[in-house]
């Protein structure tokens, strides 16, 4: 004690070291194990594990009996979280042993597995924050990731379908019928570039006749009809090189996947889809937009200035300056007569099954219907072909978000 006397009890000893003499003395504490019932025996049994290996190696350096008594006391008193208190006692003895130079591992042993928190094994990936929840854990994912362990990187899809109609990464829809080569999507860090070449097709406004992808030092070109070249030379599928994989998917579409977080899908005659991982957010430009989560600021021209004019935006992304600018768009359904009536009826099939199963994932708003009607009206020579392409475009959009749709075998689509 401060007066150099030996205290007669632990309580007297502790009280003697109060800083404020006016502070009341602590009352005598009852032993919680006398009222803990069955928990007392469990506490003693669990605490007695400190008499065994790996703690045994330290017994000659740090007496274990006092730690076992303290352990039982704390576990009995720890009514809400006895396991937590038990593990703290094991840790206290191990830490004390470490201070005298005796180090050992214990948490990896099966009898102590309950002392390893779910978050201790770092289950959350990609910068996710782990929180212990009961016997489990919860991951709060960093921006751009999802899943129980933040294992899945978010992604967005841009498409140019039909005449073509564009849907940006941020889900803004707009029509642009230019007949030049355009920058569909480019990474401002130059990790990839996707170009599309549009031409007049079979009486329609325009369609995508070629897709060029520059990625990982490769120049890949997919052309109308399904031809594929790398640096101008035909290749055999599947093709793998430098983290780039090219295959034909189950629906015979050409698919390029690159480990920079890019996927490009082309059906060989009108529809192209670009999927970009979330790592590219705020770093993209082109007809597919800037991928920043805001659909209201998509029309950023090649000079990085915004415009409200769709044609001014689209024309700015021409690759060749000599190619003519696209004039303002006219609605072909205004002069299509009976074809317009057929288009209005047939395109309504997009609202029904089997497409309806996908409506919650790929919004089936008026935009898809309007695009369908526009393309069928504009497709003077082959309206049925254009109608089927619209069905195919919607089903592909669904498959890219994990909802495959089988539709061509159904009677209402027999003409496709």
Automatic annotation (TrEMBL):
The keyword Iron does not apply. One of its GO terms (molecular function) is calcium ion binding. This is von Willebrand factor. InterPro entries: EGF (IPR000742), EGF-like_Ca-bd_dom (IPR001881), EGF-type_Asp/Asn_hydroxyl_site (IPR000152), Mucin_vWF_Thrombospondin_sf (IPR050780), VWF/SSPO/ZAN-like_Cys-rich_dom (IPR014853), VWF_type-D (IPR001846). It comes from the Eukaryota. It holds the Pfam family EGF. Disulfide bonds join 141-150. SUPFAM superfamilies: EGF/Laminin. The keyword rRNA-binding does not apply. Keywords: Disulfide bond, EGF-like domain, Glycoprotein, Repeat, Signal.
């Amino acid at each position: 004690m401060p007066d150099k006397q030996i205290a007669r009890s632990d309580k007297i000893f502790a009280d003697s070291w109060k800083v404020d003499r006016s502070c009341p003395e602590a009352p005598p504490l009852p032993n919680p194990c006398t009222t803990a019932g069955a928990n007392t025996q469990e506490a003693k049994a669990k605490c007695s594990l400190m008499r065994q290996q790996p703690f045994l190696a330290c017994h000659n350096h740090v007496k274990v009996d006092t730690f076992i008594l303290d352990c039982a006391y704390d576990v009995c008193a720890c009514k809400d979280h006895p396991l937590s208190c038990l593990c703290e006692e094991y840790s206290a003895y191990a830490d004390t042993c470490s201070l005298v130079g005796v180090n050992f591992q214990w948490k990896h042993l099966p009898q102590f597995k309950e002392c390893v928190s779910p978050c201790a094994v770092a289950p959350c990936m990609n910068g996710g924050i782990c929180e212990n929840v009961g016997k489990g854990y919860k991951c709060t994912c960093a921006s751009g990731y999802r899943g129980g362990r933040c294992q899945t990187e978010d992604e967005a899809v841009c498409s140019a379908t039909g005449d073509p109609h564009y849907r940006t990464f941020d889900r803004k829809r707009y029509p642009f019928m230019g007949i030049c080569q355009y920058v569909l999507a480019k990474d401002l860090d130059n990790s990839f570039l996707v170009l599309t070449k549009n031409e007049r097709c079979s009486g329609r406004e325009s369609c995508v006749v070629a897709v060029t992808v520059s990625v990982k030092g490769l120049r890949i070109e997919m052309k109308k009809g399904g031809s594929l070249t790398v640096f101008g030379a035909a290749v055999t599928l599947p093709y793998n090189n430098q983290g780039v994989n090219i295959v034909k998917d189950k629906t015979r579409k050409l698919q390029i996947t690159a480990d920079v977080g890019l996927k490009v899908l082309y059906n060989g005659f009108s529809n192209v889809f670009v999927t970009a991982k979330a790592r590219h957010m705020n770093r993209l430009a082109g007809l597919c937009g800037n991928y920043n989560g805001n659909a209201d600021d998509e029309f950023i021209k090649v000079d990085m200035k915004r415009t409200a004019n769709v044609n001014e935006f689209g024309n700015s992304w021409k690759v060749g300056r000599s190619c003519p600018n696209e004039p303002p768009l006219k609605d072909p359904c205004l002069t299509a007569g009976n074809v317009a009536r057929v288009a209005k009826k047939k395109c309504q099939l997009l609202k029904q099954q089997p497409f309806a199963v996908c409506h919650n994932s790929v919004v089936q708003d008026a935009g898809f219907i309007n695009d369908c009607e526009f393309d069928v009206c504009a497709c003077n020579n082959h309206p049925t072909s254009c109608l089927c392409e619209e069905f195919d475009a919607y089903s592909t959009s669904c498959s890219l978000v994990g909802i495959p749709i089988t539709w061509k075998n159904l009677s209402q689509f027999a003409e496709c």
